[in-house]
Amino acid sequence: LLREASRVFGIHLGVATVLAVLICVLPLQAMRRAVDDVKAAQAQVLHSHKLSALGEVFAGLTHEINSPLSIMLSRVKLLLYSAREQGLPAEVIQDLEVIERHGTRIAEILQGLLTFARKTPLEFVLTDLNRVIKDAVTLVEKPFMKEGVRITTDLDPDLPAIWGSPSHLQQVFLNLLNNARDAMPQGGEITIRTFPTPDHVVAEVQDTGTGIASEIRERIFDPFFTTKEAGKGTGLGLSVSYGILLNHGGRIAVESTPGAGTTFRLALPLGERRGHEVEALQGAHRG
Hints:
Elements: H1 2-85, H2 90-116, E1 125-127, H3 129-146, E2 149-155, E3 162-164, H4 166-182, E4 188-196, E5 200-207, H5 214-217, H6 237-247, E6 251-257, E7 261-269, H7 274-286
Parallel strand pairs: 2-4
Antiparallel strand pairs: 1-3, 4-5, 5-7, 6-7
Helix pairs in contact: 1-2, 2-6, 3-4, 4-6
């Protein structure tokens, strides 16, 4: 009888232990996940406010620089045309070409700043994200293949439509594709996937490149931050992409392992949820 009682007591003790673990440990895990989610959301809000403040500064600088630069570029183009027509020395023509080339580069940087500092709402339409991705891939696929970079896609054929600006979303994917190409100087593979979640459509751009070191990962969306050689990048591509996604009510995250590649994950709200979210988020971005 005593042995039977001990056995029953052991069973009850085991059950009580399991229940205690379920009651105590699972809520703690849920709390940890909630804290991590709050920290991630807070970091995104702080980053958004920082980018918004920088956008205000860039908008003013861009306006002040763009007007005289346009005049200078138009005069240089006329001088270059006249120099070629009159057969001036090659050194003169080369100097004018250098001025034109660098002036054009400045204009491209300013255009990136204008996109980053955008204060007016984008023109949204119901958009097939798969089509946006296919169009972006078509633009770069052949030149990438010459560099040993192959692009594969795994696009959900039943992906719901989103409410967005196709041209700006294409710019985001072109920026990500170009970054992936640059991260694979010896060639490699880029994989693009799309799939739905209950509230969003998700796109992933994954490469087999050099990866991003953990100490700089938090800075990659900052304007003018780049790890490329001088003259090979403005450092605006990812910050502009971040701003475009923010204006769509979306978000972007990055996962990377040095030496093993990088994955950028984009999430955009479903089409039927766009209206109020876009207005609220653009208002916060402008403020």
